[in-house]
Design brief:
Blueprint: E1 2-3, E2 9-12, E3 17-19, E4 22-24, H1 30-37, E5 45-51, E6 56-62, E7 70-76, E8 78-84, E9 96-102, E10 108-111, E11 116-121, E12 126-132, E13 141-143, H2 165-168, H3 173-178, H4 185-200, H5 213-221, H6 266-271, E14 275-277, E15 281-286, H7 297-307, H8 316-328, H9 339-347
Antiparallel strand pairs: 1-2, 2-10, 3-4, 5-12, 6-11, 6-13, 7-10, 7-12, 8-9, 8-11, 14-15
Length: 353
């Protein structure tokens, strides 16, 4: 990572391995980037744009906090990528710096939260991809006119600029400042300093820089607090491995609908005490299956002894009933011990499960 002349922006030139098959490169390395930032960068969205020659996109930025950091590279053709410092109070406020990105050098640019970004396509079908630290939010997105003479970006000559209606109607840098749309340099630095401190408090994972850990551990510890986080719980899956219907994927991950085939609250599961299996003595233990609504074999015998008259096994009258029940039970219910009693219970109006 090489710093630019604008604080908060870096360039990255990967090693490109070429042979007769083509080439291979690592166009993004979180470890390299976090070593320069002092914290592990977040990635919430990936964008791709294809532009014809002369198209100018920008100058775009987002309100801070949380802002939107970008990691930009060109995978097809070539673009002139421009970093603009729109942070009020910055030592380089109003300055810009251009970097050529193309499919030969495979260079990339990183822009921290609060910086403005723009680029122009140098040929047809110029393809740019970039990772964003936050999702697109229209209410927080702002722009400055890319042809603002006060900024004075030296766009390539000999080609007419092509702007979108939105970019063509964007205010100048001075107008955006008067309207209170520009981010504050001190506020941006305070926000980034908070990210660094949060990363410094987290334990290290093998092979990581110290400040890479903050966001990773937070998302793993509480995935329900992040929009779009899937439930990572085996109990949330049915017998076929599919996620049960009605499982909440957004919000409080601990509050699930307690229905058949759906997960129980984790605290309920942890606090539940296992009980001795009545048929297997003190060796095997199991969890009660009341959540699924199905009674185990041991539960069936316990219910029989409770509901039928003379339920004690030593009762001679009960033994006679058992013999009669086995004789009257249908063939499909006599294969396993206790199945005939279930039929008797059904005949007497006693519902199991």
């Amino acid at each position: 990572m090489e710093p630019t002349g604008i604080a908060g922006a870096w360039t990255f030139t990967p090693a490109v391995h070429r042979d007769d098959r083509g080439c291979f490169l690592e166009w993004f390395r979180a470890g390299e980037l976090s070593g320069s930032l002092g914290y592990r960068p977040g990635t919430e969205q990936g964008n791709c744009s294809v532009s014809r020659r002369g198209v100018i996109r920008g100058i775009h930025f987002a309100s801070v906090p949380p802002g939107q950091a970008k990691y930009v590279t060109c995978v097809g053709g070539a673009v002139l990528d421009v970093i603009v410092d729109v942070r009020v109070g910055s030592p380089t406020y109003g300055r810009w710096e251009a970097v050529r990105l193309d499919d030969e050098s495979r260079r990339a640019v990183y822009l921290s939260e609060g910086l403005g970004h723009a680029f122009t396509a140098l040929n047809d079908q110029a393809t740019v991809i970039y990772l964003c630290s936050t999702p697109y939010a229209p209410g927080r997105e702002h722009g400055v006119h890319p042809l603002d003479p006060d900024i004075g970006i030296a766009w390539p000559a000999g080609v007419a600029p092509v702007l979108s209606p939105k970019d063509a109607a964007a205010p100048t840098l001075a107008e955006a400042r008067r309207a209170g749309l520009l981010p504050d340099y001190a506020g941006c630095e305070a926000y980034l300093d908070g990210l660094r401190k949060a990363g410094a408090r987290q334990p290290l994972r093998p092979g990581e820089h110290h400040d890479e850990q903050a966001r990773y551990d937070k998302e793993r510890a509480d995935p329900g607090q992040h929009v779009g986080a899937l439930v990572q719980d085996d109990d949330a899956r049915g017998q076929d491995g599919d996620v049960a219907e009605g499982v909440e994927r957004v919000g409080d991950a601990e509050r699930y609908p307690r229905q058949r085939g759906q997960p129980r609250d984790r605290r309920h599961r942890e606090n539940q005490q296992p009980e001795q299996h009545p048929r297997r003595g003190g060796g095997a233990q199991r969890q009660r299956s009341a959540v699924t609504g199905r009674a185990g074999r041991g539960d069936l015998h316990a219910m029989l002894e409770h509901h039928l008259p003379g339920g004690r096994r030593g009762d001679g009258e009960q033994q006679q009933r058992d013999v009669r029940d086995r004789q009257l039970a249908p063939p499909w219910s006599s294969g396993r011990r206790g199945r005939g009693r279930a039929c008797v219970l059904a005949e007497r109006g006693i519902r199991i499960g």
